[in-house]
Amino acid sequence: LSRMRIALDGPAAAGKSTVAKILADRLGFVYIDTGAMYRTLTLKALKNNKNLENEEELTSLLLNTNIELKPGVNGQRVFLDGQEVTNDIRSTEVTNNVSLVSTHAAVRKEMVRRQQLLVKNGGVVMDGRDIGTHVIPDAELKVFMLASAEERAKRRYEENLSKGIHSDLEILQREIEERDHLDSSREASPLKKAEDAIELDTTSMNVELVVNSIIALIKERG
Ligand code: C5P
């Protein structure tokens, strides 16, 4: 059980990171948020006025970029070339550009290489879009988390509100749907349920219920 690798995939704002964090805490596993890695590269590219359509430019930028994920009190902390960017990578500008950066096959190849190094020793919960299909194709447990776009927008709206940020629900839903569309239609490792993943529609489930359902699956397999 302690060396298990759990792959958690699904569309934007489906609650993957909330659930992954709690699972990792309860199991004493390491939580790895792969979206944060794509976000960090996007942040650096925006800061350096890179052309986000240019695969070669972004790949060479990534090869010269150090991305570190460290456990923190409130979940994972993220460092870009030694500077903390935990909050900066959640900006609307990064969120609305990250899917474009993530379409490039050569960028993905390097990200997957780095992610595979992080799961080598097991005992991990990794969340993303292609974890079950490409990063850990032989994961001991794969879960594909879904929820309606409306419900996901509502959750993100409330999450923002709890941070004191007031957002427009309709715009949030549109941005989420746009990101899903780009993530699912790209050629290189699109967002897709792995054949052997267990689908969990969380539209009418609360966090506790989702966590408990996944723990039951882990016990079945561990
Ligand atoms: O998980 P999060 O919403 O932070 O991910 C941000 C974006 O990073 C996704 O919309 C997707 O474009 C990209 N991503 C990806 N593959 C992953 C994780 C994230 O393409 N494994």
Automatic annotation (TrEMBL):
Reactions the enzyme catalyzes: dCMP + ATP = dCDP + ADP; CMP + ATP = CDP + ADP
Gene Ontology MF terms: ATP binding; CMP kinase activity; dCMP kinase activity
Nucleotide-binding as UniProt keyword: yes
GO aspect biological process, one term: nucleobase-containing small molecule interconversion
Positions that bind ATP: G10, P11, A12, A13, A14, G15, K16, S17, T18
Residue ranges of domain Cytidylate kinase in the record: 6-219
The protein's enzyme class: transferase
Protein name: Cytidylate kinase
Gene name as annotated: cmk
